[in-house]
Fold each of these.
Amino acid sequence: MSKLIHVAAAVIRDRRGRILIARRPDDKHQGGLWEFPGGKVEPGEPVADALARELHEELGIRVTSARPLILIPHHYPDKSVLLDVWDVDGFEGDAHGAEGQPVEWVRPEALDDYAFPAANAPIVAAARLPERLLITGAATSPDEYAERLQVALEQGMRQVMLRAKALSEDEFAGLYRSLLPLCQQKGAVLGVNAPVAQANALGAEHLHLTSERLQALVGRSEFNGRWLSASCHNVEQIRQAEQKGVDFITLSPVQATSSHPGEPVLGWAQFAEMVAECTLPVYALGGLSDDDLASARQHGAQGVAAISAWW
């Protein structure tokens, strides 16, 4: 059996929503790159205790509020590394480089401007993504789309996927352009569920792929925007998403939905099992709402994606 190296890391947020990152010493492996603070978990040590110990040693702070964010497994021939990342939104003390390391507080959207180790890419994504992803449902007119979207934005929605399969390409493009300013005014991302070429033509910041489009995708470079996500329903599709450079996925159906009555569901136990070996942020999808956010987090999800709960 290969050796397991368990590492705890933290996405630390201050009251202004900024995130703390630290720069690795130049003489260390991957020196000069930025990282999220943390360190090794000792055998038998609770992860929360290890995280608190490391952050006190490295930054001089005492953690008062934290929750799991994402687990990232890496398997090598001789060892396995489990990066156990927590979201720390409460602490006491003045965070500083207690071991002489440079540290900076940065806005989540500015994380892309810093060079991180490749293994940290999913952490950067998880740190930037919200816990709710709205997928638009049906509407009778562009005005109704705008009205429904406005309500969701007022309720704090910050990641929206425009899904309107009944519209022609021109109608979809017109609707996207009419809704984009509403999202921009609230600092929300408006994505599209569409072919890659159409998303690029629109200049979309986020493209969500169906499982069929994921299979047809050659690689991440096909899409020009910041966020590329995909619908997954099984382990094979999850592996495809990882291999092709997708930023995050939805995994469904977790529970029964009114749109697909009688369809087999994953349930939380199988969902958690599939997420445990996934190296990407995962949104739980299928019959879920705000009431399921805590359960989703407990079972390894970034958060919840839904249509009817918020549309």
Note: Residues 205 and 226 are 5 Å apart (CA to CA).
Amino acid sequence: MALDGKTLRGTIPLGETRGVHLLAAYLPKQGVVLAQMQVDEKSNEITHAPKLLATLDLRGVVGSSDAMFDQRTLSLQIVQAKGDYLWIVKDNQEGLREEIDVLFQPHRKLAATSALPNDFRTSRTVEKGHGRKDSRTIITSSLLAGYSTWPELAQVFKLENQRTDALGVSETEVRYGVTSLPAPLAGPKRLLELTRGHWGVENGLHYRRDATFHEDHSQLRMGHAPQLLALLNNTVLGILACQRVTNVAHARREFAYQFDKALHSLAS
């Protein structure tokens, strides 16, 4: 379950920078929005995330997000609700990123000494397409589980993404993360799938609402009209996902051209 927010740009008044902002809990694999909540103008996503999660049954759910949500209280809330968390970690949590960085640094073996023990496990995927090659490597470890003070920590990981274009020019991005999922339940291959699957909220939800449904071009601003429009868009995308529709733009055109056929398919 991915946590991510989106601003409806058409609701931003002229000369201002803030419009209607919605935080969603989204299932990337199923393509369904479980819940959505408006973020107040004087607040942010972090303060609304606990309220949103409190409305959901989190048993057996793995909650993922970018570095904004790697909060101790949020991590504890998910685990206490019988779920698990998987966060990307940056410098917003003092000391945590440094602990992980030191763990994965290469350690030089001194003469007449034994190498430092580790339990590193690795998984890697390579994909080619659109004129580029994407290589993703994850290294996981449980060594910080009994050392770090992060609540319910079971594993940490180092994620390295390398992208090479058609000219052979490469760019590498390194990120770190934490999770409450223990190694027997989620090895490196599974964690690599989960970290990549999180970004389905961008392609499967936000991009489709913007590019296919033109949500950001809407000028609806009165009352709760923007929130209702977003709710309808979420519902349509969820229905299409349940019908295993992958080309949403084509389905939208077909619905507009053959309205009766589209309604019949929904009923069946």
Note: Residues 225-242 form the longest helix (18 residues).
